[in-house]
Amino acid sequence: MLGVFAAMYLLAPTFAVARLWVRVAIFVAVWLVVARYLEWRIFTTVLPASRTWYQVGWIWFCLFVELLTFTDQFILYLTFLRRTDRRSEADQHERRLRGLPDDELASVDVFIPTYDEPFEVLEKTITGALCLDYPNSQVWVLDDGRRPWLKELCERKGAGYLTRSDNVDAKAGNINHALTMTHGEFFAIFDADFVPQRNFLMRTMGFFADPKIGIVQIPHAFYNDDPMQANLGLHRGLPDEQRFFFDSIMPARDGWDGAFCCGSNSVTRRAALRAVGDSLPTQSITEDILLTLVLLRKGYVTRYLCEPLAIGLAPESLAAFFVQRQRWARGAIQTLYLAAGPLGPGLSLMHRLLFFPTHWLSLGLRALMVVVVPIVFMWTGLAPVVDVTPESVFYYLFPAILALNGGISWFAPHEHFPLAAQVSATIQSFKLLPTVLATLVKPKGHAFKVTPKGAAARGASYASEIFWPAAALMALTIIGLVLNTIPEWRMIDHPAAFPMVAFWSVINIVVLFFVCMTSLQARMPRTEERFEIDEPILISTAGGELLSGRIKDISLAGAGLLTDSGASGLFGRAAPLRVHIMQVGWIDATVVQHRGQLVGVKFNLARSLERDLLIRKLFTGALLRGNNAVSCSVNRAMFKKIWSMNAQLPHAVTKGAQSAPAERLPAESLVIPPRPRTDDLAHLAGVRSLHPTSSIESSLGRLAEAVS
Fold first, then answer.
1. Which of 159, 353, 393, 519 is disulfide-compatible with 154, CB 3.0–4.6 A?
2. Whether residue 466 has pLDDT greater than 50
3. What would the mean pLDDT of 396-419 be, rounded to a whole number?
4. Residue 653 has what pLDDT?
C-alpha cells in the first residue's frame, strides 16, 4: 500500500501528462494493481461463499456493482491515454480568418432556441450573440413559446425571430424548423442561457478547413455557482461540477475522435447535416449525442476546442439540476435501443466504448451501494464478502483505491476531487438511478423538460427527496455503529471486522452530512451574478464633485466601489450619483450601502444603449475565475464549511396565486429576418474605453454622444 501511495502521489506528479509513455505507464501500473485486487476479490471473497441463497446472492450482487464500476473506470482510463489541446490550432485559424475579406468568410446562422426562459436570461444571450465579431453571421431567436415581448425585443435589437405552428420534437424540432427557413453554410447553437464571447466564431470556424470536421464543440463554462458550490458556500474553493468532464474527459475523447456535440456552444457544417437527412435526429431527447453518432458513421468528426468561448447559467437549484441530468440520462439510455446508437453498425470498438452509457448506471448504483452495504451489515449481519481479514484489506483493497484515485488525480489534477465527487454521486443516486432503471425498461414516451432558469429556478426550496433519505441513511449508520458496540445487540460477530466497518461508516456519515447540507437551498439575495473586476471608475456626485475610485465587483444591477479615503463623507445612503464605466459610459446610480471606503451602488439602468454595452463588457469578455484548486484544498474548504455554514432549515414553500396565462402569438410559422444594427457596440465601446478627465469633458462627451 505504501509503495502504491509513493508511486501515484509522490513520483507520478513529477512527470508531465503530455508524454505518451508516462500516460501508458500510469495506465499499466494502475490496472496491474486493480487486477491483483480483482483476483483476490473473486477467488477469495466470493467463490468460496457457501451460505444461504440470499447471503450468496447479496455477495454476488455486490461483486456485480464493483465490476460495473471497474468497467466504467477502465473505459475512462483508456480514454485518458490520448489527449488534445487545440488552442494553438485555433490561434492559427483565427489569424487566417481575420486576414480574409468579409465576403470570403463562410456564412453562419446563429440559433438561440428558447421556450419559456425569462427576459433577464434571454436579453444577455441575444445581446451577446449580436456582438460576435464575425461579419458574415445572422442571429436567429427560435421561439417555441411564441411570446410577443420576445418578438418585440428581437425587432428592437435587430435579431431574427422565428416561430412555428407546433412544438413537435421540442428543441430538435425547433432547430429543424429553423434549418428550413435559413440558408447559412454553417449554424451555431446557443442555449437561451449561454452568452457567446465576441471571438467565438473566429476561434471555431477555422477548424472547418478540414473537410472531415462536421461539428466544433466548445466547453460549457458558467458565471454563477452550481447547486453544490452555492449550497456549501464554496464558490471560491470548489470548481463547478462539470469541469472534470469538459476540461479533462472531452479533450481525451477528442484524441480518439470521440468528442460529441453537447447541444449548446457548437457549430455544425450544413453540408454534413445534408448527408444524414438535413435535420437533427429526433429519436432521442438528447439529439446532440445522436447527431454526433449519425455524423460519425458518415465520416464526419466532432472536434473539441477546450476554451471558454461561451458562458452560461449552471443549474440554479437542485430541482433544476435534476431536470437537466434526468434528461441527459434518459437520452443516453435511449441510444442503446436505436440503430444509430453505440450498439448499431458502422462504429469502431473504441467509439462503441466511448458512447456506451455505462456511467449513468454505475454512478448511482455504486454511490448508493457504498452507503447501503455497511448499514445492511450492521443491522442484519449480511456481509458483502467472506474470508476478509484486516491484513488483506491493507494488502489488496486500499492499494486498488489509492491507485484508481491517484491515477485520475494525475490525469486531472485540478478537476477531480474524490470527496466532492462522492458527495455529488450520492446526491445524484437518489434521483438518477430510478430514472436510468425506468428508461431501461421503458425507453420511449418521456417528455422533453426544459431546465428552469432565472426566477423559476431560484424560487425552489430545499430538496426534500434528497434531504430526508440522506438524513435517514445517516441516522441508520450512526445507530448501527452504536448498537454494534453493545455485545448483547451486536450483529457483526467477527471482532476484526467492526473497526473496518466503523471506518467505512464514518466516511459515509461525512458524505451524507454534506449531502444534507447541499440539499438545503442557499439564499440568493441577488438576482444578477457579480463579476470581480479591478479597474478605475469615475464618480460624479449630485453636488457636482468628480471623484475617482476602483471597481471591486460589478453586475448588471449594481457595483461595489472602492473610493478615495477623503471622499467617504460625500456618499449618504440613497444619494444619487453617476458613474462612468470604461467601455460603457455614464450610468445613473443610487447609493445603497456605505462602509468606510466601500460604497455599494444600485444602477438605475433601464433598457438602453448603456445596458447593452454593460452586457457586452461583462458577458462577452470571459470574466471567469481561474481553476487552480487541488484535492487537499477542496477537502479542507469543505470541512471548514461544516463549522461556518449557516444553512436554513427545511421549510415548506407556500405557493401564491397562479399568474395569468402568458400572452402567445398565433400558432403559425412566423419569420422576421435580422436587420443590421444602427449602433455599432464595438465602436462605441472603443470610444468609451477611457474616462473623461473633467466634468466639462464628460458633459461635452455626453452631448457629442447624444448628437451622434
1. 159
2. yes
3. 91
4. 45
- Tell me the Cα Rg of the chain: 28
Worst-scoring range by mean pLDDT, 124-128, 438-442, 490-494?
Answer: 490-494
**CB-based contact 607:614 (threshold 8 Å):** no
Residue 651 has pLDDT above 60, yes or no: no
| Whole-angstrom distance, CA of residue 396 vs CA of residue 66 | 14
- Which pTM does this prediction carry? 0.91
Contact between residue 132 and residue 201 where contact means Cβ atoms under 8 Å apart:
yes
CA distance readout (Å), 15 to 7, 33, 97, 532: 11, 20, 37, 35
Q: Which helix (H) or strand (E) holds 580?
A: strand 576-581
pLDDT value of position 301: 97
CB neighbour class for 300 (10 Å; exposed up to 12, middle 13-18, buried from 19):
buried
| 3-class SS of residue 695 | helix
SS3 489: helix
The SS3 of residue 693 is coil
Q: For residues 395-428, b (16+ Cβ closer than 10 Å) or e, as one string?
A: ebbebbebbbbbbbbbbbebbbbbbbbbbbbbbb
pLDDT over 60 at 708, yes or no:
no
Give the closest residue to 517 by CA, choosing from 432, 420, 435, 452: 420
Q: What are phi and psi of 263, to 5 degrees?
A: 85, -75
Helices (H), 247-384: 250-255, 270-274, 287-297, 318-334, 349-355, 358-380
- The span from the CA of 668 to the CA of 181, in Å, is 13
The answer to whether residues 605 and 205 touch, using CB atoms and an 8 Å cutoff, is no
Phi, psi angles (nearest 5°) of residue 608: -160, 175
Contact 108, 267 (CB under 8 A): yes
Q: What is the pLDDT of residues 354-382, one digit of tens each?
A: 999 999 989 999 999 999 999 999 999 99
Residue 501, pLDDT above cutoff 50: yes
Look at phi and psi of residue 120 and say left if phi exceeds 0, alpha if psi is from -120 to 50, else beta. Answer: alpha
Proportion of the chain above pLDDT 90, given as a percent: 65
Q: From 241, 219, 216, select the one nearest 230 (Cα to Cα).
A: 241
Q: Is 299 left (phi over 0), alpha (psi -120 to 50) or beta?
A: left
- The answer, yes or no, to whether residue 645 has pLDDT greater than 70, is no
Amino acid 682: pLDDT: 86
